[in-house]
Design goal:
With 236 residues, this protein is α/β, with parallel strands linked by helices. Helices cover 29% and strands 32% of the residues. The protein is built from seven helices and 15 strands. The strands form four sheets. It has a five-stranded parallel β-sheet, sandwiched between helices. A five-stranded antiparallel β-sheet has the order 10-9-8-12-11. It has a three-stranded antiparallel β-sheet with strand order 13-14-15. The chain is elongated, with a radius of gyration of 20 Å.
């Protein structure tokens, strides 16, 4: 059975697709999500093999969700959308396949053939993903979207990944690896990323270590491993 996750803000569309997948019998639907943030949590927890993904969704669209998935967890992606066939030609190289709403069973069966072939060839596909324009963070009962250029630093600890900026500190489900590769934030320590524009000074310590002092007065450790990379990034 192929582990599949459905992501669509329309309840009827999710239910209809789930019924069709269950009737065909090749899939185990491990989740049905109404938005990108809910889907991101399920992807990290359940690690689906295939993602049936709507493009147009509120707050964060399907492309933004793809940019937030760790490459080691990237499932094969099938867009399920109301876009017309002509418009979808631009998306063909970015995903395994696409389905137009309302989904037809015969077309879905062709998609399943592609999925089966793809799963035999590779565990995790490489899709062209845009850079992250907004980092989704949890704040009380709200979702706060923070532009990377507004971030001062990002810290990873046992409680999770925390985005720190002038308006406070917020939890995010995104990993340091994803933020490092898809924003301009720079790694300075295995547990820290920093915004180069927010650096006031770098203090060189003994044994090849260092400390970053940000413009707001925060202190960020710099490990031996990343000190040279940091200096290169700053052209020092």
């Amino acid at each position: 059975m192929i582990r599949a996750l459905i992501v669509d803000d329309e309840l009827h569309a999710r239910e209809e697709l789930q019924i069709m997948l269950q009737e065909i019998g090749a899939f185990e639907v491990i989740g049905s999500c109404a938005n990108a943030l809910e889907a991101l949590k399920v992807i990290y927890r359940e690690r689906p093999e295939v993602l049936f993904l709507d493009i147009q969704m509120p707050v964060l669209n399907g492309f933004e969700l793809l940019s937030m998935i760790d490459p080691d967890l990237m499932p094969h992606v099938v867009f399920v959308t109301a876009y017309d066939t002509y418009a979808l030609k631009a998306f063909e190289e970015k995903t395994l396949d696409y389905l137009l709403k309302p989904v037809e069973k015969k077309r879905l069966e062709k998609t399943i053939e592609k999925v089966l072939r793809a799963l035999q060839e590779t565990a995790h596909p490489l899709y062209e993903s845009p850079g992250i324009r907004r980092i989704p963070c949890v704040f009380a009962n709200r979702i706060k979207l923070i532009a990377p250029q507004e971030v001062e630093l990002v810290r990873s600890e046992l409680s999770g990944v925390h985005v720190v900026g002038p308006k406070g500190e917020f939890f995010t489900d995104l990993t340091l690896r994803v933020l490092e590769t898809r924003t301009d934030l720079v790694r300075c320590h295995k547990q820290y990323l920093v915004n180069l524009d927010q650096i006031d000074e770098i203090v060189l310590l003994e044994n090849g270590l260092g400390e970053i002092h940000t413009k707001s007065g925060r202190v960020v450790p710099v490990s031996r491993r990343y000190l040279k990379t940091l200096r290169d990034s700053l052209k020092l």
